[in-house]
Amino acid sequence: MAKAKRKKKKPLALVALGGNVLIQLGQRGTIGEQELNALEIVQRLVTMVKLNYNLVITHGNGPQVGNMLIRTEAARKTVPVQPLDICVAWTQGSMGYLLQNALLNEFWKQEMHDKRVLTMITEVLVDRKDPAFKKPTKPVGPFVTKARANELMKTGIKMVEVAGRGWRRVVPSPKPQRVIQRRTIRELALSGKIIIAAGGGGISVYTKPNGEWEGIDAVIDKDLASAWLAKEIGADVFIILTDVGQVYLNYDKPSAYGVERMTTHEAKKYIREGHFAPGSMLPKIQATINYLSGGGKRVIITRAGLLEAALEGRAGTHIVPRKEDKKWPTGTIRISSRLKSSKRKK
Ligand code: ADP
Ligand code: MG
Q: Greater confidence, 71 or 335?
């Protein structure tokens, strides 16, 4: 009798795309630019699907949500201004659409006709008592004149003056507490659908005294939200694609060097030593530690162009919970233990 073949479980990967994935530094963000950028990134993601990964994709939205706020501000005399939660939802829809359509076209070109793609409008719960609400720090949207800033401040909006450039709105950036749609995302991803979720770190909602959820003016760091989601859906690997190939120690110094592997313990030590810039690499490392200490197995931080090499263990920075995990765990994701040392930056 023929031996029954045991079906191997597909690994579940959560891939977080950097904020500049669709509008790169120096670009204006025309639709042509965004479509080309989408094509480039989805080709990498399709490779992952071919390598048999189930996939959840998250993404930043910095340039896009900034543009949405500029649009509502510029058109405020014609159509009503919309709050930040709506602007984030708009970017989840429009960026999700661009990525989704590019993925579908790529699957079609590669004759992978059974692939399904879905963008999920994702809400993330925050705590109204989070200290971030007392001290908004995250600048968003357009620069405005002092007169307009005064008008906005009368409505309770917090504005700060940026020397030489005008006034700008600052919003709280609270910690994510729960991804509301996590179970649906996990179910769909495990059944092989490619899910685009938690765009821009998710739409911030809080629980009202009567138990209902309501949108709130805040933005959630996309790396922290992605880590929560990765943890909540039980992702086997959490991959952060950004614009550097590796995490560096002594970054921006002549003595800078790339890290191939580190444990959470080492990562915490490097944080204390000040190797990671707040607002860029620091939240990625904090997100990494959150995910790994919550049961996650491995984090890879690298650039999109190095994704395939990183999955083979030849590129990127790999972060694991403990020393003994530095060997790639067999069974779920195959990674060779060879990691070439790279002293090159970017
Ligand atoms: P993303 O949109 O991918 O979140 P960020 O700009 O927030 O991009 O984060 C990536 C940036 O982090 C890199 O371009 C780099 O300038 C910066 N960075 C700060 N500290 C480090 C470090 N220690 N190693 C590598 N990159 C770092
Ligand atoms: Mg960032």
A: 71
